[in-house]
Specification:
The protein has 653 residues and is of the alpha+beta class. It has four domains: 73 residues, no CATH class; 114 residues; 182 residues; 230 residues, MetI-like fold. The chain has 13 helices and 28 strands. Strands 8-7-11-12-13-15-19-18 form an eight-stranded antiparallel β-sheet, with no helix packed on it. The chain has a five-stranded mixed β-sheet with strand order 24-4-3-26-27, with no helix packed on it. A five-stranded mixed β-sheet has the order 14-21-20-16-17, with no helix packed on it. The longest helix has 38 residues. It is flat and about 115 Å long. The mean pLDDT is 81.
Length: 653
């Protein structure tokens, strides 16, 4: 049979085999009683909405439209303030406004207050930048960015929190000259307060040590007179206060929710600056203090005193207009709508669209929402749906379709596509197990041939004893012994890991990267190769002994061929057929990796991925990995058949 025809035939066989594998996987993991199969895909503690999304993603369920003429739109308000919803169709329109307010108890939209910033000498060549802040909630972090005397800039860097609200950072090897730093403090709700400082460092001419640090400019302590845990209301007069030291030109402006900047007059008193502003409407107002061109920003959340939305009367086309709040999947009736960081909250807008003949309006309705800042967003209203279970045949069709398209879904661990997760782990496994496979079979075949040809000698006996000992060793035991000898005692190789990074955590480049990878690879590769080598030597030896008793070997000797020709050209070539089969079956192991080997040596390959996926019930990853292993095994068998025909002319494709 010609090679092309054979490949076509084997490809058909491979597809059929993979289909059988997929059917078996479906039978094993999908035909479980009750919801056990779907439970494989679920993480503990997820909500009903998340369960529905997973069931839809993996073909257990489907969405169907609910009966009736209703349309719905779910909207997550990005900010507090007043919103307007407008729906227009066929000359008919419905419009209403609703407000999103702040819960002063459970939600914190007020930024921290930076009470003080300072810089002090803390060593011969070290200065310490210190920040003190207060907030009604806890702090997330504080960062600083700095310009040095040589005009080099340092990007935003996290400061160390010494205790609650007190942050500091040490600047080593401080040089003489002018410094400037921008400070940013965030609380647990990501509200941000800013400040700035400039200072001069002088050093002793003789010793080079820091002589003094003098502050030349500070902008900090931006806050309002609103009590902690309270929210300003429409019409309230808010007093805004900030401190600025060393500034000659200080101004204050309020940026309203519609992005309009309103100047506010200031009353200075030493380093203090005060200004008053009457809040005209709800929303988030930015306090912008400008001192000599440097801005300090804070935020004032303002609630609305508006009543519930006014629902327009029904018309011939649009009717049953409603605006409700959904919290954690349940509709609630409280108004005004409360903005809360800790809850899943969305506004649900419903309307009924009916044609003159009583049928539902075709397609979807398109509404328009006007945000508090005056911008608009499109609100496509679709017919509400429900999630229902698929029949077994529908599940089977969806499962086969996704698997044949290599769509394994997303990993539960980090919500990334399974393909991306697997492709990250395949290269390390290919490097380790591919190298081990090549070395063990090349060396094993040669040694097996030599041992078989020298049958009855001390060399054969010694080789058999050593290989049987190595073959019987558990891989976890041999790996631990190798680590003890070569890492603990001799310190030749690292204990574990893939390598490729320096001791400081920076990625190596060029030959340094390659050398470090090979250095980390040496110990696990040596362990695997020795263990696989033992089995290959024994298999090749047994096959050679069987072939050497064949008539064609006797004929080759009778013809007067050289010993090397008889051994390698005639005997070894035919004796390799069982070894080729073993090697082909080992190809699947390249993808799966050695679970124990990769675990002991912390090698980031497929073996660890399978173990972690199994323990964490990450079924999509495990399913995808096993499917690829099955495909590699089938390809390995086809490769073995082609090698058979090349090695033994009696074998026909």
């Amino acid at each position: 049979m010609r090679l092309r025809k054979y490949l076509v035939k084997r490809t058909v066989h491979m597809v059929i085999t993979l289909l059988i594998v997929l059917v078996l996987l479906f039978v094993l993991f999908r035909l479980m009683p009750g919801d056990a199969a779907m439970g494989l895909f679920m993480k503990p503690g997820i909500t009903d909405i998340e369960k529905d999304q997973i069931a839809l993603r993996y073909g257990f369920a489907k969405e169907i439209e609910l009966p009736g003429n209703h349309f719905v739109y779910n909207y997550n308000p990005p900010n507090i303030g007043e919103y307007t919803m407008l729906i227009e169709v066929d000359g008919d329109s419905m419009q209403s406004t609703f407000h999103v307010n702040v819960d002063p108890v459970d939600t914190d939209l007020n930024p921290p207050k930076i009470d003080n910033i300072d810089v002090v000498v803390s060593g011969n060549s070290t200065i310490t930048l210190m920040v003190n802040a207060t907030d009604q909630s806890s702090f997330r972090n504080a960062k600083y960015g700095m310009t040095l005397p040589n005009w080099d800039t340092q990007d935003a860097t996290v400061m160390t929190e010494v205790d609650s609200g007190n942050f500091e950072v040490q600047i080593f090897d401080a040089m003489a000259g002018a410094y400037s730093a921008d400070i940013e403090v965030k609380d647990a709700f990501l509200n941000t307060a800013t400040a700035a400082i400039k200072f001069n460092v002088t050093t002793d001419i003789v010793t080079g040590n820091i002589a003094s640090v003098a502050t030349t400019f500070k902008l900090w302590n931006i806050h309002t007179d609103i009590a902690t845990g309270s929210i300003a209301e429409n019409g309230d007069t808010v007093t805004v206060t900030a401190q600025a030291e060393g500034a000659t030109d200080v101004s204050l402006s309020m940026l309203t929710p519609d992005n309009t900047s309103v100047a506010v007059s200031l009353t200075p008193s030493n380093t203090w600056y005060n200004g008053s502003y009457v809040i005209p409407d709800s929303g988030l107002y930015d306090i912008v203090f400008n001192a000599d061109g440097i801005e300090g920003i804070s935020v004032v959340p303002v609630n609305s005193d508006a009543t519930a939305p006014i629902i327009p009367a029904d018309s011939g086309v649009l009717s049953d207009f409603s605006i409700d709040l959904e919290r954690n999947g349940l509709l609630v009736s409280d108004y005004p709508f409360i903005y809360n960081h800790q809850e899943l909250t969305k506004v649900v807008i419903n309307v009924t669209g009916t044609q003159s003949n009583g049928d539902r309006l075709p397609g979807s309705l398109t509404g328009m929402i006007t945000l508090p800042d005056g911008s608009e967003t499109i609100a496509p209203m679709t017919h509400p749906t429900d999630v229902v279970d698929r029949t077994l045949m529908e599940q089977f069709y969806y499962y086969m379709k996704s698997m044949l398209l290599f769509d394994f879904g997303n990993s539960f661990e980090d919500n990334r596509p399974v393909w991306d997760v697997i492709l990250e782990r395949v290269p390390p496994t290919l490097l380790l197990f591919g190298s081990s496979l090549i070395l063990s079979y090349l060396i094993g075949i040669v040694v097996g041939v030599v041992v078989a040809w020298r049958r009855g000698t001390v060399m054969e006996l010694g080789t058999i004893v050593v290989t049987l000992f190595l073959y019987s060793m558990p891989i976890f035991w041999s790996a631990l012994i190798a680590q003890w000898i070569f890492f603990v005692q001799l310190k030749w190789f690292p204990l574990s890991g893939l390598g490729g990074v320096s001791e400081t955590g920076e990625k190596l480049l060029g030959m340094a990267y390659v050398t470090d990878i090979v250095w980390h690879l040496a110990l696990p590769l040596m362990t695997l190769t020795i263990l696989h080598l033992a089995g290959t030597i024994l298999l090749m030896r047994s096959s050679m002994l069987e072939v050497m008793g064949e008539d064609f070997i006797t004929t080759a000797r009778a013809k007067g061929l050289k010993t090397r020709q008889v051994v390698y050209k005639h005997a070894a070539r035919n004796a390799m057929l069982p070894v080729v089969t073993s090697m082909a079956l080992s190809l699947g192991g390249i993808i799966s990796g050695g679970v124990l080997t990769e675990t002991i040596f912390s090698w980031p390959g497929m073996g660890i991925l399978l173990v972690r996926g199994t323990l964490m019930h990450n079924y999509p990853v495990v399913q995808g990995a096993f499917y690829i292993m099955a495909g590699m095994t089938v390809l390995g068998n086809m490769f073995a058949d082609i090698l058979y025909a090349y090695l033994d002319p009696r074998v026909q494709l």
